[in-house]
Amino acid sequence: MKPQKIRGVLSLLVLFLATSVWAQQLVTGTVTGDDGEPLIGVSVRIEGTGTGTVTDVDGTYSLTTQEGNTLIYSYTGYGTVSREVGTQTIIDVELVAGAQLDEVVVTALGISRERKALGYAVEEIESEQIERTQQNNLVNSLQGQVAGVQVTSAGGGPGQGARIIIRGINSLDPSANNEPLFVIDGIPVSNETLTAGGGAERNVSNRIADINPQDVESMTVLKGGPATALYGLRAANGAIIITTKRGQAGKLSVDFSTTYGTEEVNKFPETQRVYTQGYEGVYDPDSFWPSWGPTVEEARQYAEENGLPRPNDLFNNYENAFQQGNQWRHTLSVSGGDEKATFRTSISRLEHEGVLPFSDYENTSFRINANYVASEKFNFGGGVNYIRSGGNRVNADRFSTRLTYWAPQYDVNDYINEDGSMIGYQAGRTAGNNPIYGEATNKFIDDVDRYIGNLNFSYAPFPSLTFNYTIGLDQYSDFRQNYGRGSVYPGAPNFEDNLSNGNGFVVETRMRSRDVTSNINGIFTSTVLPDINMRFLAGFDVFDSSYDRVTTTGYDLDIYDLFSLNNAADIQTESNLRNRRLLGLYGDLSFDYRNAVYLTVTGRNDWSSTLPAANRSFFYPSVSLGLIMDELIELPSAISFFKIRTSYAGIGKDTDPYRTSIVYANPTGFPIEGVTGWSRGSQKGANDLKPERTNTFEIGTNLRFLQNRLSLDFTYYDAKSVDQIIPVPTSLTTGFSSFVLNAGSMRNRGVELMLKGSPVATENFLWDVTLNYTRNRNEVLEIYEGIEDIFIGDHFGYAGASATIRLIEGQPYGNIYGRSYARYGANDDDLFIDYSQPMLIGADGFPVIETTQKILGNTQPDWFGAIINNFTYKGLTFSFQIDTRQGVQKYNQQGNFFSAFGIAPYTLNREETIVFEGVTADGEPNTQAVYLGQGTGPDGRAYGAGYYRNTYRGSTENFVEDADWIRLRNVSISYQLPATLLENLFIDNVSLRVTGNNLWLDTPYSGFDPEGNRGNGNTDTGFGGFTYPGVRTVFFTLNVGF
Amino acid sequence: MNSLLSTFLTVFALLLFSGCGADYLDINENPNVATRPPLDGLLANASLGTANNHQSISNGHSSYFVQYLASPNQGSSTDIYDEVTNGGAWNGIYGDMTDLYDLIRFGEEDGLLRHVAIAKILMAVNLGLIVDNWGSAPYSNAFTGEELRPTYDTAEELYASIFTLLEEAIALMPAAADTPEIGAGSDFVYNGNLDLWTKAAYSLRARYLNHLSETGAYDPTAVLSAAENGFDSYEEDAAVTRFAIRNPWAQVAISNAGLVLGGWLSEQFIDAVNGTTYATVDPRLPLLTNENEDGEYVGTPNGEGRAGTGTATSESYLVTEGYFSSENAPLDIITYAELKFIEAEAALAASDQNRANTAFREGVTASMLEIGVDSSAAVAYLNEAYDTDAVTLDDLFREKYVALFLSPETWVDARRYDYAYEDFELPTGAALNSFPLRVIYPDTETNRNAENVPDVTMLTPLFWDTE
């Protein structure tokens, strides 16, 4: 074995140094079905590269390739065939339809299985589909591509985090991770969005954003339940299995790609441009109030009479404040190998500057994968990925809030004086926070160094028995520096956040996260009876996760712009350690009968360090069945394939570390002069927690018609999570702010539909269309006795208009509660508003605010879906994707502020006197005319702060908006230069692509793009307004292969 | 093949049970925290926290309600009584009461009676802040972690608890003297001096008995007898002078200087001391705030916001040169001066005019001396402002208002006195038609303990506020 190993390493080295010696050649051929008919639109790819073509109407193709390359032929409903390129120039292929389908997909633990053998839905997207989206964050590339998968983001910021939820939210716990497990080349990796050091408001990345999408060969989506039962509790919310690109034997190929993208905000809120700075209609250039003054014309007259400077025209600072964003990404990859050893290495660099001033992000990634086949029995391989990522993460919430306060008579871009102090909007421009100055002087920069490595060994002593061992490491450090500049001179105009605890500040956060995974298993196959094949798999895995962090805060800088902790007068430090370990023993027994009936039973026992010792071990089973009906019964000839699948799984789940006891911690501010303080921890742990359990039932079918020209895939699922471990938020008078309890159950039921077809296939023109549809229904079944509701989160609104998300029994997750207009005849106990009831008008003539919060909307969409179209004409490919999300609401905090500050266009009626439609307390129609403005009305009555501040902004109902949308997610045109043009050149292939993302959006929502949430947590979905705005981007990409 | 399979399974079993011992998973004890805290540390946090809670009540609402301070912004909700909850103060107080609950519990278990006695006094003070600002509140089944939704004790019941806590603390003192000392520096108020704590307990008893002035339960004799066992000089004030960074009022002053506006003095307060409302100029004024650019003391009318630019010094603010807002200024819990005013008020009620006169003059003098007015100026002020020797309730509330500048206690006085201060008016654009009588419960209560939260408004009077 030893000499072989050395030889393997040597060959890799040789390959690294070698230059290309293989000649290029043009390969042509015809692809036919097993009935002899030519197949149109068959994908022909060169393995390990992004390049390929499709067959034309005669089933023929031509492709420039090299000796030693492998060509992969795939066609919906026909499976996949691969052929190695030798010296021949014509390669004809026959693909076998329907029953003999041998399409292989990656399943749990990275095990490849025939798709038809599976009793559950699996979807896969490949490198072309990923690259088409031009998303820098791999999670975003799944948007709209897979039924059951919902991707949301906190906006269009560089490196901004994204959130992915499969088949609905499974946990009542507001702090639970509801996202799937990510696995890269067999190693579970972190996709955490760590918000320590102030990252929550700073759109930090989810860690999968580190991965270069161009390194990814395919992503398989396992939607939880039976599909992930073998992975155990960490994949209870599903799993995304990422396989990276590998080298191919026989050829050294070099690929270079470069992309330039330019972006702008895709949707702005509308603002009124009539009324200027002041209050009660009186102009005041020193006023805090940006828009409660008179009209600009009136203000000018007033200024002239009072010797004030002439008021300006009003700027549209919502558009002014944002800029054009730019990004560049370059990737160079080299791959190759011989029959024994293969490798691929890539280096990539992304630089991205966002639309919000000073937001940027950089990512440098280096990856190498290598595999070595030592003998027929033994092979091994591994991969290492080093990533450095980070940038200045702006505080979009602060930025937009300050933009709302900013008086529109001044250009917000005029933000800094020559001496470095702030230009404000009040008091001769010496006060009033300038949001751009804020971003220029108050920064949050993260700097991640990450290593992901995996090694795998496979040993097959007999053809029927294989042992696999994988060990992996995912380790990263993240250094975050957050600082605010002190005042240039004492009392100099400055951004208020810079002065929160003295003159300027520095916060340094150093984090380290290390996950080690070890997994061993064996697979044994046998033919039990002539028609029955058996396969048995058993394995054991270990997961060891550790995390540590130190945050040091320094307040009151001596030198105002020296951002070193050494320069701070007051220093406070806080540290945190966290460890979690899991062990899992698992087994999987599968039978197939005549390639028509497939039965799999699995079992897994997990041991988790996070549960009390008595309850830390738990077992759970799964069973799944696949029936290939066309093998079993006679079907009409129009049906080319018909499968029914069904499965059941019960997955156990542990909890976060350190939730089993009551503890005491050192409060912020201590030590003080050598004295340490102690205080009871705010979360009450419980030493009798038991594991949660999610029971999933799934049934589905795959039907294909007209020789697989049309395919329909349908799934129904029902997942019930019981005994959920939740920190139930409590009144602080309990002595805690939350109690950890096994406190409830919740159900998700839904359907997933995927339709694929090829409507047009003419000589030169092919059209493929894919449609997916997802509908999920959630219900909170049970909450711990004595607890009426679980508080998930809230978002501030002026005058009591804060929106709250709470869970109550019998209602779905994500109901948005808030104040509303009182209705005549309504009860305090009504959960919902009866909109047919007339509005109740108070004795003062204004609508009455109902202060008991009612349900005003829900953050979970009724349904979502996408249509993806793909057109091919010779070397030209055109595709577009339309996504939609329907029946979803969102609290628009910006809307609340726009009404409070007289910015919304509807506040233009502020000088009108109207009669509100509705009834008074005695049930009679209201007839009282009231003035909508501030101060004294034309009727001589004092109206104080006016209708919008006194009434309108206090009704959350006005700001919980429909956030449905339809968008043109992606349009892409690519052109591959004809091979004939490149003959006799050292260049192998050249393609050009232009992509547009988010070019068109249709939504009733009044703020920025409603896709953006306040953040990435469970408590953020449904809250929007002051988010990083969504962007529309156009990309230009050049790919060159050598 | 079967033998292969069994070998294979044996290997797994071995790996599981030998390679990973049972203790491999015993790592769930949180390495960042303690399960049993040092009691000195609990006391350190709770004693400092108690003083800070006074500032959160004051800066969060009470100083605006009594018009010590005014918002620089027009129509600010605190200034105009718009649904004020001050949840931050509520949460801070309950956090400290939780630690005091544990301190009493663990101290009794460990026989650390000094800690127990001090904790009971601090508990009484915090409970006083809760009941005097919000009214009824959870106490008798709070803090335990057993009750998910603690029920509310009535305000009367809470007052009974305050008196019980103070009595128990006083009764415990002799026994406490024989128990281990408190760690140096861990008692932020008196550094472990039980004599001073005993005086503070009596002074507090006098305060809470005196709060009942409008009720039938009022017993001026009991107030006077408690006061006799209270403080004997302003050097005995219950106050904190060490902070995490600086006195929180100094933070307000520094932020304001950095244009994060706050700590603006109200026109009401300035007028009361600058010769406008009353003829005599109070010598304390220059020691509390700044003159504006024109060399005048200018307050801001509540509800109206700033008249000037907000950046030029057009008004008077809390400044770090001010006595109560300097970096290490004492943050008071209860003072000798307050006790003297309490004594004077009870003496008046007990028809002991002479004692009232003496206590009144001593209260004013102590307040002045403490903040740095020299004694001749104090005497001159008293002689000029009060020519007769028969102090009235109005005199008393007028002077107590100035002497207790920034204290949350003044809002209790204001309500007992029915806001009858000279020239005291509703703020411009008030959201209520009359002065507020309490703040409303914070969102954490209405959201998480809805079934127990009493239905009240800012105009629902507390039990001691009967007229």
Automatic annotation (TrEMBL), chain A:
Residue ranges of domain TonB-dependent receptor-like beta-barrel in the record: 397-778
TonB-dependent receptor plug domain: residues covered: 119-239
GO molecular function: siderophore uptake transmembrane transporter activity
Signal sequence region: 1-23
PROSITE patterns, alphabetized: TONB_DEPENDENT_REC_3
One GO BP annotation of this record: siderophore transmembrane transport
GO cellular component term, pick one: cell outer membrane
Listed PANTHER family: HEMOGLOBIN AND HEMOGLOBIN-HAPTOGLOBIN-BINDING PROTEIN 1-RELATED, TONB-DEPENDENT OUTER MEMBRANE RECEPTOR
Name this polypeptide is given: TonB-linked SusC/RagA family outer membrane protein
Automatic annotation (TrEMBL), chain B:
InterPro entries documented for this protein: SusD-like_2, TPR-like_helical_dom_sf
Record-linked Pfam families: SusD-like_2
SUPFAM superfamilies given in the database record: TPR-like (SSF48452)
Region named Disordered: 289-310
Protein name as catalogued: SusD-like starch-binding protein associating with outer membrane
Organism: Neolewinella xylanilytica
